[in-house]
């Protein structure tokens, strides 16, 4: 019996369900509370009533109807808005979650369901030893991929059991946020810069962690077991609209997993969301480099990004004989073998590669005189009703513009035309086998995009002009310190493409232990017989055979970055004032409006020219204002507009990173740029 004095005029009953494993103890409780009782007091009352001796420190109150956590324990029930009709759930904040990694392996670990996704991903990356967690995020499986999986499961006679690496006993995933990571706070795990295997000093830190030296290979080394049958079972986008649907599943980084309907033991995808890979270092980033490589590999195999046959063979060659074979040999070797420090440092200095996406311009390194290019090139202008007009001219490249003249002698006068490349799209038009070295320029004009082709004579001329065009499109000149590295990157990619058949290099493809169909997309397995594919991959392999394992992966990533579609995330949108749907491509430095039927770019807008952007949450419309009074507005049809808003803010946030920050991130700035005000 409860005395009448305990029933104050302001007291009421609060229903709380407790999530615990004690079958003999009740789970439903009614607490007598008042509105001025704080959340901490409610939990204290509840634990006293449960009368079970256990650690309740990871438990918190979840408000089911409002889909929110009550984490501010000093707030009162009145301030939180909790009344008698509320149904609260007293449950653990850390729960089991299955994560499908970029290498298609699944790990199971404990993750905070109460922290915002940005923080949860940071904790996950500490467990997996992946630096720069801000580049990754969590995504749900797309509906189309789920439908294909259901169809496969329905057709298969035997149930498919997936190998899952269980990390639930890891020190980091034991349930406390802010854990130091797999290793100690003061020591950074290091890897052999050539093979990507843990250094001998690092391997001792694994101690009792599930990430033992055997399991480490799942994260840092590659597995090429991918048959055409496996590829056929996976979802492959066929159109631009299909590619847009791949990006619909990203979770909101400013909300927790529980708030977004994720349940315990659900499976999510852990992927690199932002294609700006900052400060890659083989000494510390073996896992990160391997996962980036794997994401690139699967994107190419599933044709999520387009590439030519020549490029597909390069990617196959890097996988087939090099990365796969070396990964197998790395797995077989003794992880504890010692190597000379000098050799490791030398390998590191040779291998340290900064891939595009970081802030590479350094004004102190830039030269004061802006150089220019002047050479004979051929100009190609596509015509709708006639053959392409190809004419030689004398071209001069200065600042961010290209001018062309009738000949070298007339270069002192007025040019025939001056093309301003700032904000243009630059697309390689290259076939090394046929000695075709072209540069496709899509230059913004009032009516859309003006299409122009430049034809170069050889690799060196192409590399210089292509690098100048790429920098000019970003508003940079050849005086920028990134010009020469860009030339070198283009030349190295062309060198990989440039192979000739040599009898000693290719013996008999039948005698070689390889399944060539595992390294190319289904389109090419249908086009060529296995023997033909093996011979062609062997040809391409000659140019990459001298690389170390990590070097081969970095070259694979660089080649992926060189593809025209690299880094573009697509969304189907409807622009304000338009009567038809378009595709919006979001990249690390620009937005592109693309014709959904033809795939041709219509307009490009650079982030560097952006003044402000906002979202009208009532009508779910994104509005962006650029320099020179240019404004656009659109609604998203293939995904929530919050995803696009977060992409734009996320890329702007990542552009503020510098190596001086000592890997500390301004999380408040990220949420300010990406969170929005709903």
TrEMBL record:
Record key words, sorted: Cell adhesion
Swiss-Prot/TrEMBL GO biological process terms: cell-matrix adhesion; integrin-mediated signaling pathway
Family annotation (InterPro entries): Band_41_domain, FERM_2, FERM_central, FERM_CS, Kindlin/fermitin, Kindlin_2_N, PH-like_dom_sf, PH_domain
Keyword Cytoplasm: no
GO cellular component: focal adhesion
GO molecular function: integrin binding
CDD domains in the record: FERM_B-lobe, FERM_C_fermitin, FERM_F0_KIND1, PH_fermitin
tRNA processing in keyword set: no
UniProt cross-references to SMART domains, sorted A to Z: B41, PH
Domain PH: start-end pairs: 378-474
Family: Belongs to the kindlin family.
Protein name: FERM1 protein
Origin species: Rostratula benghalensis (greater painted-snipe)
